[in-house]
Amino acid sequence: MESTTQQLATVEQAVELGLRADEFEMIKEILGRTPNFTETAVYSVMWSEHCSYKNSIYWLKQLPKDGPHMLVKAGEENAGLVDIGDGLGCAFKIESHNHPSALEPYQGAATGVGGINRDIFTMGARPIAQLNSLRFGNIDRDRTKWLVNGVVKGIGDYGNAFGIPIVGGEVFFDDSYNTNPLVNAFSAGIVDAKKIISAKAKGPGNPVFIVGSATGKDGIAGAAFASKDITEESAQDLPSVQVGDPFMEKLLLEATMELAETDAIVGMQDMGAAGITCSTCEMSAGGGVGMEIQLDKVPTRQENMLPYEILLSESQERMLVVVQKGKEQIVKDIFDKWDLHAEEIGVVTDTQRIRYYMNGELVGDVPAESLVLGGGAPQYQREYKEPAYYQEFKKFSIDNVQEPEDLKAVADFLLQHPNIASKRWVYEQYDSMVGTKNMTTNRPADAGVVNIKGTEKALAMTVDCNSRYVNADPEIGTMIAVSEAARNIVCAGGVPSAITNCLNFGNPYNPESYWQFVGAIKGMSAACIKFQTPVTGGNVSFYNQTVTNGVEVPVFPTPTIGMIGVVEDKNKIMTLDFKQKGDLIFLLGECTNDIASSEYLYSYHGIKASPAPYFDLEKEFATQEVVKDLIQKDLINAAHDVSDGGLYTSLVEMSMPRGLGFDVEADGEVRLDAFLFGEGQGRVVVTVSEDAEDEFIEYLATIDVASTLLGHVTKGKLVVDGEHFGFIHEAKELFDNALEKRLK
Amino acid sequence: MKFGVVTFPGSNCDADMIYVLETIMGQEVEPLWHKDHDLKGCDLIVLPGGFSYGDYLRSGAIAKLSPIMEEVIKHANNGGYVMGICNGFQILTESGLLDGALLHNNTQKFISKNVHLKVGSSNTALTKGLDSNKAHKIPIAHGEGRFYAGEDTMKKILDNDQVLFYYADEEGAVTDAANPNGSLLNIAGICNEKRNVFGMMPHPERAADSELNNIDGKAFFESLLKFC
C-alpha cells in the first residue's frame, strides 16, 4: 500500500485533490521534481482556499492591522491580541463552519465551536465568552428547521459541556441561505500578557509532541471540501465533516492552561484545517526551522492508516507542541494527570524542510515556507465586475411605496418576524451563565458584557452584520456592519478596541461575487480607521452559494464583524431597559425619510430592490461619541440603538424588560412608516430621568448631533401620535413566542 | 468551616463555586481531585456542576465510581455534609446518596435561564436561613434535570419532608407553568433522610456576586454557614 502513496503523482490526481494544473507545475518547480501522491495531498490542502487565502490575501493585507490597543498584530499568532490593561490581553477570533454545517448541522456547528476555542486557548488564553452569528434560509422550509435545530443543538451541546458561556449573537433568515447556511463562531479569552504561548517552532533538537485525541479518518481533507461549491453532490463529502468531543476539549484546555504556567513549552498550535500538515508547516515556517515527523508514532483510532490520511485527518481536539529539550517529563506529567495522549512524534531541525517518515521510510519532503500563507502559497488577484443589480437597486424611491393605513398591523407583523422577534428559543439552549462572568443576564444591554473579576473593568463584545444592506451596497453595507458593532459596544458603556471578521461570500472566480468581496473590504477599512478598531484576524469563507442547473446564486455577502470593547469602569455599564414611568425618551442622530433595505420594505412590502439605508460615517461616529459622553456624565439611564425593525422595535425592546411602555410623537418631516420602521443608521434612543433633565438639555445645546425629544416612558401603554398601539404585555407575547411557533 | 470542592474531569462549575466560597463568602476552600483518596479534613464537600467524564453513558454514572466518591460516600454515611449542584446532584442520585433520578428535560432541550424557587422543608441547614415566603431567583442550566422517583420513594421523600425546593413563579406559586423541565411535583432539590446530603439542579453560586446584579443565591451559603 505504501508504494501507491509513494508513486509520483499525476496532474489528474492533483486536480482531483483540488489543485489547479498550473499549481501542480508550481509544485514541480519548487521541489525540482515531480511530487509523490502524499506530497501532492499536502500541497492540495495547504494551497486550498481555506488554508492559503490565495484569492483573498491581496485584499486582506489592505485592512488596518494596528491600533492604539494592540499587543499582537493580526497574523503574527493564531489570533490577534488586544491590550486591556492590568497586564492582561484579550485574544479573540471568529471563524466559519458553513460547509460542514450545511451537510451535518449538529457536528458541523459543534466542531466550529471547538475549533474557535482551541484557537484561543492554544495561545495560553482561557476563553471567557462566546458569541455566534447564524444565517439560515426560509424559516418555513423543513430543511431550514432541520438545520436550525441541528446547529443550535450542536453549538449548545459542545459549548455547554466545554463550559464557556455564550453571551450574545445573531440569527437571521433569508432565502439566499436556503442551501448554504452560515455558522460563524466567536470566542474571546483572557491571557496574562507575559504568558502568551507562541505558535512558532524554534530550537533545532527540540522534540515535537502531538497531544489530545487520537487521529482517525474523520474530516479527511475538510479544508479542501470547504473550498468548493456546495452542490447536490455535496452529501458525498460527508466523510469530510469532523466529529467533536467537548469533554476531550475541556481536558485539553485545562492541560494547556497548566502547561502555560511552566517553562517547558516553546510553541503550540491547534490542529484545525489540514491537521498535522498545517500545524507542522506553519509552526516551522513561523520559526524559520524544519521538522522531522514520524507518522507511525501518531496515536491513531484505526489500524493501517495511510501516511496521507494521517497527514490530512482533521480529527478534533489535537494540538502540536514543541517542547524545550530536557523538559519532556513536565509535559508528559501534565497530560498524564488529565488522562490525555502526549506522544513525541518528531524533532525540530534547521533544514527548513518538513520530512515525514512512516516506519523509517521517507514519504514526503517539502520546504515549509513553500506551503504557507505569506510564503510560497499562491496569491491571486481575481477579476471583479459591478453587477447590474447594483444600479437597479439605486432607482428605488419611497414615493413609489404606498404607506399602509394600519401601521399597528405592520408593527405586530415586524415584532413577530423571525429576524426581529426574540431569539429566546435559541439562546435558552446555550449556557449563558457558566463562569459567573456574564453581566448582561440580569441587566440587558446592546452588547454582551463580561466581568473581568478582580479588576475595575469589563469586556463588551458583539457580532453584527446586516447582510441585506451589504448585498444592496457592499461598501456601505460593511461600513454599517462595523458601525453597528461599535454602536452596540458604545451603548453598553464600552469603548471599541478591535474587530475580527468572518467574510462569507460566493465563488471568488465569479467576478460579481468578487466585486462584493472587494467592496466589503473597502468599506470595512474605512469604518475601522474611523473607529480606530484594527482587524486582528478572522477568516474567509468563499463558495457559499446554491448551484442549481449550473446557475450560481451566491448567499447574501456576509462580512460578519465581531468586535470587542473595554468598559473601563464596570459601574458605568449602560443598559437598554426603560427604568421608570415618566422618564423622557430622546432620539440621538438624524431621522430620515428612508425605508431602503428595511425589514419592513423587504418583508412587509416584498420589495427586494433598494439601496442600503441612510448612512453617514462621520455623523455615526459623532453620535457614538455623544453617547459615550452621556454615559460618563451619568446623564442617561438607558441607551439602545435603532437597527433591524427600526425605531418602533427599539422602543418595544426597551419597554419589555420591566413591562413599561412609551408615548411618543412622530417627526412631522418624515413619513410615519419611515419614522417607525425605517432603518436609517446612526441613531440611538436614550432615556433621561427627571433629576438629570435640565443638565441633559443643557448638554444637548453644546453638541453638534441631531437630537429629538420623542416622548416619555409609560406604565405599559404603547402610544404613537396619540394612537394606541396596544400594551407591552401583548407586544411581548408576540415578540417572545414567534420564533418557537414558526420553527414547530 | 472548611469546604472541599471536587473537580472531576469535565467539571466546569468548580472554579465558580470556589470563587463564591472563597472570595465572596470568605471561607477556607480545599480543591479536591477525582483521583484523591482523601478529603483533607473538609467538613462540607461540594460536588459542582459540569459534565463529569463527559456525562458519557449517563450523567453522573461514571463519576460515582471515582476514587474520591468512595471517600465522599463514607463521609456522608458518617453524617458529614455533602452538597451537589446540577451535575453534582446527578452524581448523588447515581451514587445512591440521594433518592430518585434526573431524566432528560421534558422539552428534550437544554435549558439555561433564571427560574424562581420556593423553599420546601425549612428543616435543613441549607434552607433554615432562607425566607420561605420568598421566590428566590436562581439560574438553571441543564439538559437532564427532570426529577423522578417511583411512587414508594416519592411517598418516603414527602413523608420525611425531604424536598428542599420547588420550581415556582415570580410570586412563589408552585404551578405547572413554572416547571421548566417536567420534574415531579416541581421538585428542584431534595435532601436525604438524615438531612446531611443536599442535591439541587439550580445554581445558587451563579447568583451570589453583586456584580452580576442578583444575589438571591448568597443566602443559601449564609444558611449553610449558620446552621451546619
UniProtKB/TrEMBL annotation, chain A:
Segments forming domain Phosphoribosylformylglycinamidine synthase linker: 9-54
Active site, UniProt feature: 50, 97 (proton acceptor)
InterPro entries (alphabetical): PRibForGlyAmidine_synth_PurL (IPR010074), PurL_linker (IPR041609), PurM-like_C_dom (IPR010918), PurM-like_C_sf (IPR036676), PurM-like_N (IPR016188), PurM-like_N_sf (IPR036921)
Subcellular location(s) of the protein: Cytoplasm
Catalytic activity: N(2)-formyl-N(1)-(5-phospho-beta-D-ribosyl)glycinamide + L-glutamine + ATP + H2O = 2-formamido-N(1)-(5-O-phospho-beta-D-ribosyl)acetamidine + L-glutamate + ADP + phosphate + H(+)
BP GO terms, sorted: 'de novo' IMP biosynthetic process
Record EC number: 6.3.5.3
Domain PurM-like N-terminal, first and last residues per copy: 77-191, 445-567
Primary residence: cytoplasm
Binding site for Mg(2+) 1: 95, 539
Superkingdom of the source species: Bacteria
GO MF annotation: an example: ATP binding
Keywords tagged on the record: ATP-binding, Cytoplasm, Ligase, Magnesium, Metal-binding, Nucleotide-binding, Purine biosynthesis
Residues given in the record as substrate binding sites: 96-99, 118, 242, 314-316, 541
List of residues binding ATP: 53, 93, 501, 538
Task performed by this protein: Part of the phosphoribosylformylglycinamidine synthase complex involved in the purines biosynthetic pathway. Catalyzes the ATP-dependent conversion of formylglycinamide ribonucleotide (FGAR) and glutamine to yield formylglycinamidine ribonucleotide (FGAM) and glutamate. The FGAM synthase complex is composed of three subunits. PurQ produces an ammonia molecule by converting glutamine to glutamate. PurL transfers the ammonia molecule to FGAR to form FGAM in an ATP-dependent manner.
HAMAP family in UniProt: PurL_2
Assembly and binders: Monomer. Part of the FGAM synthase complex composed of 1 PurL, 1 PurQ and 2 PurS subunits.
Protein name from the UniProt record: Phosphoribosylformylglycinamidine synthase subunit PurL
Organism from which the protein derives: Taishania pollutisoli
Automatic annotation (TrEMBL), chain B:
NCBIfam families the record matches: FGAM_synth_I, PRK03619.1
SMART domains to which the protein is assigned, alphabetical: GATase_5
PANTHER family: PHOSPHORIBOSYLFORMYLGLYCINAMIDINE SYNTHASE SUBUNIT PURQ
UniProt-recorded name of the protein: Phosphoribosylformylglycinamidine synthase subunit PurQ
Function: Part of the phosphoribosylformylglycinamidine synthase complex involved in the purines biosynthetic pathway. Catalyzes the ATP-dependent conversion of formylglycinamide ribonucleotide (FGAR) and glutamine to yield formylglycinamidine ribonucleotide (FGAM) and glutamate. The FGAM synthase complex is composed of three subunits. PurQ produces an ammonia molecule by converting glutamine to glutamate. PurL transfers the ammonia molecule to FGAR to form FGAM in an ATP-dependent manner.
Protein encoded by which gene: purQ
Subcellular location as annotated: Cytoplasm
Species in which this protein is naturally found: Taishania pollutisoli
EC number: 6.3.5.3, 3.5.1.2
Active site: 86, 203, 205
Keywords: ATP-binding, Cytoplasm, Glutamine amidotransferase, Hydrolase, Ligase, Nucleotide-binding, Purine biosynthesis
Pfam families in alphabetical order: GATase_5
Chief site of localization: cytoplasm
Record's catalysed reaction(s): N(2)-formyl-N(1)-(5-phospho-beta-D-ribosyl)glycinamide + L-glutamine + ATP + H2O = 2-formamido-N(1)-(5-O-phospho-beta-D-ribosyl)acetamidine + L-glutamate + ADP + phosphate + H(+); L-glutamine + H2O = L-glutamate + NH4(+)
Metabolic or biological pathway: Purine metabolism; IMP biosynthesis via de novo pathway; 5-amino-1-(5-phospho-D-ribosyl)imidazole from N(2)-formyl-N(1)-(5-phospho-D-ribosyl)glycinamide: step 1/2
GO CC terms in record: cytoplasm
Quaternary assembly: Part of the FGAM synthase complex composed of 1 PurL, 1 PurQ and 2 PurS subunits.
GO molecular function term, any single one: phosphoribosylformylglycinamidine synthase activity
Gene Ontology BP term (one): 'de novo' IMP biosynthetic process
Keyword match Transcription: no
SUPFAM superfamilies: Class I glutamine amidotransferase-like (SSF52317)
